[in-house]
Each structure stands twice: as C-alpha cells, then as structure tokens.
Amino acid sequence: MSRGHARYQERHHGLSLFGKDLVRRCSSHCELCNAQGVKLGIFEVPPIESEPNFEHCIMICDVCTQQIESPKTRDNNHWRCLNASIWSPVPAVKVIAIAMLQSIAQQERWAVELLEQVYLEADEQAWLEEIEIP
Hints:
The chain has 134 residues and is mainly α. The chain has helices at residues 3-16, 19-26, 62-69, 82-85, 91-104, 109-115, 122-129, and strands at 40-44, 57-61.
C-alpha cells in the first residue's frame, strides 16, 4: 500500500469518528442547503489542517459538495438557501456559506444583498480570509 493511500485511509478514519456527532448536530439535514432525506457527507472547511478537526467539519449533501468543488457546474440559484446558513451558530457553516456568497456575488445581485447583512466575529473573519473558492 502506498504511503499516500495510507495517509488517506488514516484521515478518512479520523473524519468518520466525527460522523455520529455531526449527524446529531445537523439533525440529518444538509448544513448549507437544509436538504433532508439525501445522502450527506463530511466536508472539511479550508484550510485543512494536518489532523482532522471537528470544528472544521460540516455535513453537506452531494449537490453542495459538487458545486463547491466544481464551480463550472455551479447553479447559483441553488445557493439562495444561504440566507439561513449565514446565521448558523456553527462557525464552519457560517464561514463557508459566506465564502460561497462572495464567490457568487460577482454574478448575482441577491448574493451582494445577503453579504450586506452578514456579521462576523474577528476569528470568523480571519478564517474567511483563508478560504479561496473560485
């Protein structure tokens, strides 16, 4: 087994330990779009640390994951759901929601209007500045 594969397996195992707590936290809903009854997966909000960090993990649906990771396939209307996520008490959810809005704001006026309502704590602002979403 390659060293890279072994590291992936270790990281995946470390993340899977968070699964039950994350599902409890999100009540089996996507933490970004609030979809329910769909497959959810753990998404690590950048920057990704060397060791899995529960505070950087959120549970999101495949649609949200695909659109974050593949901006060419992004449906900006899907992200209208962020009007709720930007007020999440979970910093990782709030920060990635605002990062997505910033990315979409270049094309969508409604995203700019949502961003005008946002309030961030200093540590959340610092985290947001470390995230790059195309």
